[in-house]
TrEMBL record, chain A:
Domain Haem-binding residues, every copy: 12-145
Species annotation: Pedobacter alluvionis
Short name of one Pfam family: Cytochrome_P460
SMART domains, per database record: Haem_bd (SM01235)
The organism's taxonomic lineage, starting at the top: Bacteria, Pseudomonadati, Bacteroidota, Sphingobacteriia, Sphingobacteriales
Matches recorded under CDD domains: cyt_P460_Mc-like
Protein name (Swiss-Prot/TrEMBL): Cytochrome P460
InterPro entries membership: Cytochrome_P460, Cytochrome_P460_sp, Haem-bd
Highest taxon, organism lineage: Bacteria
UniProtKB/TrEMBL annotation, chain B:
Lineage: Bacteria, Pseudomonadati, Bacteroidota, Sphingobacteriia, Sphingobacteriales
Gene source species: Pedobacter alluvionis
Record-given protein name: Uncharacterized protein
PROSITE patterns: PROKAR_LIPOPROTEIN
Length: 312, 156
């Protein structure tokens, strides 16, 4: 009896002592005045606010048990990582296309059932989403935020002929790969969220891996190139690839790219192929959006199987 | 009370955070791949992708493929030379299950080919795909001119 009592006292005092160690974030955390997302219907803004803002904005509110050590460290790390992936505090400074992209990103986080984190909704039931909440955002994006293809206009403008153009390296050191147009198309996508049309190219290693059914994980040497063009309305009612927007690469090498999930990530934008990204770590943005596919080696595309029909 | 609560909470959180998903198998879009279509002499998917287009009313999407000779057009914008081979593959589109905001190829609706012989004479052939819509009436001359005028997708 006495021993038990001592143990309980011991644990209790340890827990109390632990309360002295707290993450820095807690000191600066205060219940800020919540500001509505501008330009979005109130119901939609409300959903994001109640379910997402605690980790994806500067408007975090901590409940009493969130403040307890060790829970508070967990909460602080959620906010840190959450804001890195998606931060609504910058909303006001963003142009409409960026805002829409952010909402599509958020919606896909909800649809993948990753967000809001289940460990969070277990304790903050008000943040749980129901189908209604999700449909609100979906309907808004479909009806209002759709980007329309540009009407017919000559797209030969700026069809860069400069095959010997000097292309700068990506900030993470990856060099441009000019030969992807000779690779095979493993899929195409229409992106109505940003009004583009895309071809996803796979290099010979990728095509072979698909054919052999060895795509999870993809073998070293696999490279994907994804090109995006603006949609352009043709005279016959079809939509065609217009202005070139960008090309992005994922290069598989488990050792060399160990720090970035086994892939080298790079993007070059516009006719001048300007490397994308401000810092070496720009690729954390790529990874965080590709993260829901972590069980598929971070690859979204379900590729075609490309068979030689004359070989049996 | 608080102690039990905190300890329980902590355990619960760790449990939820490490909760694992089953590792899934390879994902291939077999439905959209061309495996057997009668009379098709070669697989257009093996050729060089040259252009992409959407037909919003029909909810289909097409990719134009070419052989090496035809693909020269990607660089110089020139007319298709003798020996060019073009294929236009048209799929029914479907919503991308992994990304709201995208549509991807579902099943093949039709394949059309245009061969340029050594004298530059064109011949058009139509192949019915598994998702063919019998309500459609493709007129040969019209299709030929549409296919030849598809703007190729240029990249620097």
């Amino acid at each position: 009896m006495k021993l038990k009592f001592k143990i309980v006292i011991g644990i209790l005092s340890l827990v109390l002592l632990a309360q002295l160690i707290r993450p820095e974030e807690l000191h600066s955390a205060k219940a800020q005045q919540v500001k509505r997302l501008a330009g979005v219907p109130e119901e939609v803004a409300k959903v994001l606010e109640t379910s997402c803002f605690d980790c994806h904005s500067s408007q975090t509110s901590w409940l009493w048990f969130d403040r307890l050590t060790p829970v508070n460290f967990l909460v602080a790390s959620h906010i840190r990582d959450g804001r890195k992936a998606l931060d609504f505090s910058q909303w006001d400074s963003l142009a409409t296309p960026k805002r829409n992209a952010m909402l599509y990103f958020a919606l896909n986080g909800m649809l993948s059932k990753e967000m809001p984190l289940s460990s969070y909704t277990a304790l903050h039931p008000a943040a749980k989403l129901d189908q209604n909440d999700i449909d609100l955002l979906r309907a808004y994006l479909l009806n209002t935020a759709l980007s329309k293809p540009a009407s017919t206009k000559s797209n030969s403008k700026g069809a860069a002929q400069s095959s010997v153009m000097e292309v700068k390296r990506s900030p993470n050191g990856i060099a441009y790969l000019p030969n992807y147009r000779n690779w095979k198309a493993i899929s195409t996508t229409e992106r109505f969220d940003n009004g583009t049309i895309r071809i996803i190219f796979g290099n010979p290693v990728a095509v072979k891996a698909i054919h052999e059914g060895k795509t999870n994980p993809w073998p070293d040497g696999t490279i994907f190139a994804k090109t995006a063009w603006k949609q352009e309305q043709g005279k016959d009612g079809s939509v065609y690839a217009g202005q070139f927007v960008q090309v992005e690469f994922m290069i598989k090498d488990v050792k060399q790219y160990a720090g970035t999930k086994g892939w080298g990530w790079a993007r070059w934008k516009g006719e001048n192929l300007l490397p994308y990204g401000k810092t070496v770590k720009f690729d954390s943005e790529c990874i965080s959006c590709h993260r829901p596919e972590r069980d598929h080696d971070y690859v979204f595309t379900t590729p075609f199987d490309i068979k030689d029909l004359n070989k049996k | 009370m608080r102690l039990i609560f905190t300890a329980g909470l902590f355990a619960l959180m760790i449990l939820l955070m490490t909760g694992c998903k089953p590792n899934s198998v390879d994902r291939i879009n077999t439905g959209a791949s061309i495996t057997s279509i009668s009379r098709l002499p070669e697989n257009p998917l093996e050729m060089i992708p040259m252009a992409v287009s959407l037909q919003p009313q029909r909810k289909t999407m097409s990719t134009l493929y070419g052989n090496g000779i035809a693909a020269k057009r990607l660089k110089d914008d020139a007319d298709y030379a003798a020996g060019s081979v073009l294929y236009l593959v048209t799929w029914k589109g479907k919503a991308d299950p992994d990304w709201f905001g995208a549509r991807i190829p579902d099943r093949v609706m039709a394949i059309e080919s245009v061969y340029f012989d050594q004298n530059g004479q064109k011949s058009y052939t139509f192949f019915k795909g598994p998702a063919w819509n019998s309500g459609l009436d493709l007129k040969k001359e019209e299709r030929l001119s549409i296919i030849l005028s598809i703007p190729v997708a240029k990249s620097p």
